Amino acid sequence: MTLSATHHALNFSDLTPREAYKVMIGTIVPRPIAWVTTVSPDGVVNAAPYSFFNCLSADPPILALGVENKPDRSFKDTAYNIRMTECFTVNIVDRANVEAMSVTAAGFDREVDELEMAGLTSAPGEKVACPRIAEAPVAFECERYLGIEVSSAREIILGRIVMAHVRNDIIDPATCYSDHERLDAIGRMGGNGYAGTLDYFDWPTPSAEDVLNGVRKKAATGGV
């Protein structure tokens, strides 16, 4: 293989947190979006999207959220509610709900119900005390598993999935396989960008034997 491009070497110890953030969100893409619903101790429902999110384990089933604190280092509503109630729900964002999701990202005061502002429907949780978003194609009810304070600015929250709600036309409950086209999930890019998951292709993982046979064939033919 001939290298046709050079790389900028970025030492993260020389970058400000904002610069590091820009490098990461512009290159670690697309990132799945956790549309998190929680409820305050006073019963106020909160909804907010987070793209520092992914699944980490299936046994036990664990999701991870990276939640940034407010500029004064106080907790955002999501982190505060999870600490106080020990539960949250991760709703998956599809193309049909992008506008509503963006409304819930606005900086409302703590007493404001973002679902109401976005015209969304709150459905009660079955295993946890907080609701899910009825319009979301998928929702994972989670119990707080562990909180990791990585700095005064950010916390990583691990949640154990205790219940999933998947729209009927998306999943085959007999095989647990989901139809990505019907799901039509949206991921986060850098800046204000989003990307859909319909740009999809299959690429099977080869066996070690297939790879070695290919190497031997190239060597025997002079790389042709």
Radius of gyration: 21 Å
User: So how many helices?
Assistant: 6
Any idea how many domains? 1
- What CATH architecture would you give? Roll
Summarize the main sheet: 7 strands, antiparallel
Q: Determine the structural class based on helices, strands and strand pairing.
A: alpha+beta
What is the CATH homology-level superfamily?
Electron Transport, Fmn-binding Protein, Chain A
Strand content: 25-35%
Poorly predicted runs: none
* Name of the CATH first level: Mainly Beta
- Measured distance between first and last alpha carbons: 13 Å
Mean pLDDT: 92
Tell me the total number of β-strands.
Answer: 14
| Cross-sheet strand order for the largest sheet | 3-2-6-9-10-5-4
CATH third-level topology: Pnp Oxidase, Chain A
Instruction: Determine the fraction of residues in helical runs and give it as a percent range.
Output: 10-25%
Shape: globular
Structural topology:
Layout: H1 17-27, E1 31-32, E2 34-39, E3 45-50, E4 53-58, E5 61-68, H2 77-85, E6 87-92, H3 98-104, H4 114-117, E7 122-123, E8 132-133, E9 138-149, E10 154-166, E11 171-172, E12 177-178, H5 180-183, E13 186-188, E14 194-196, H6 208-220
Antiparallel strand pairs: 1-13, 2-3, 2-6, 4-5, 5-10, 6-9, 7-8, 9-10, 11-12, 13-14
